[in-house]
């Protein structure tokens, strides 16, 4: 497997080869993703919810995102490592956005950053691109807009909203994004945008016609505690595997059958003899 790069992802779109992506937040998971041959590992700010138990993604800080990104960076050799810019790290002004994106590259080894929003981010995307930092856009259902949206709802359902989204996608491509995440939009709209853009679209809850797909690792592995969204396919039930293992461990410790003699260290024979009466 050769290294996935920004140009190699653009080539994939040209060749109509699907781009495979998931989130990861820690060394062990990221290693497994990379060894499975995924194209993109996203250190998503969804970690606020699935790793830290927050209700939404808003509270996670730059410093926290950097810690998680470093662990992922140390695990990944092949995939492109993308760091998600957290809420508050780029909304106030472009200068701050560029400074924070540079921190992801310099302090954590990210190869690209992702940020939410459409036209209103075009100027920032231009600045980042000029600063040699590849940018992934993210439009549609943008979780950092939870208060404006009034919850997590499918976006782009009216003709007017569809036009807004298409304009945003083109503005991001024009500003220099190398890829755009389409989240929580009708399949038909995602298909239209995917056909209109030269850069790859990565869908989550956006149907099968995008150039690639992404899911939150904890959703698809079942390491979450509520009903998943419609678009989540459960590929494994890791929570159930862990529940069984934890119950077995508790039973064994309480029955004193763990650890066994074979799982114990022993004194050298001579020393052991001197202990025997
Ligand atoms: O934070 C995240 O995990 C994301 C992906 C779902 C696109 O933004
Ligand atoms: Na995110």
TrEMBL record:
InterPro entries (alphabetical): Pantoate_hydroxy_MeTrfase, Pyrv/PenolPyrv_kinase-like_dom, Pyrv_kinase-like_dom_sf
Q: Which terms does the record give in the GO molecular function aspect?
A: 3-methyl-2-oxobutanoate hydroxymethyltransferase activity; magnesium ion binding
**Which GO biological process annotations does it have?**
pantothenate biosynthetic process
**UniProt KW keywords:** Cytoplasm, Magnesium, Metal-binding, Pantothenate biosynthesis, Transferase
List GO terms (cellular component aspect): cytoplasm
What does the note under cofactor report?
Answer: Binds 1 Mg(2+) ion per subunit.
Residues that bind Mg(2+), according to the entry?
45, 84, 116
Q: Where is the active site?
A: 183 (proton acceptor)
**Catalyzed reaction equations:** (6R)-5,10-methylene-5,6,7,8-tetrahydrofolate + 3-methyl-2-oxobutanoate + H2O = 2-dehydropantoate + (6S)-5,6,7,8-tetrahydrofolate
Q: Which CDD domains match?
A: KPHMT-like
Q: Give cofactor(s), names only.
A: Mg(2+)
Q: Where does 3-methyl-2-oxobutanoate bind?
A: 45-46, 84, 114
Tell me which domain of life the UniProt entry assigns to the organism this sequence originates from. Answer: Bacteria
Signal peptide positions are none
Q: Where are the transmembrane segments?
A: none
Q: What is its EC number?
A: 2.1.2.11
Q: Where in the cell is it found?
A: Cytoplasm
Q: Which Pfam family is one of this chain's hits?
A: Pantoate_transf
Q: What does this protein do?
A: Catalyzes the reversible reaction in which hydroxymethyl group from 5,10-methylenetetrahydrofolate is transferred onto alpha-ketoisovalerate to form ketopantoate.
Q: What is this protein called?
A: 3-methyl-2-oxobutanoate hydroxymethyltransferase
**Species classification:** Bacteria, Pseudomonadati, Acidobacteriota, Terriglobia, Terriglobales
Annotated gene: panB
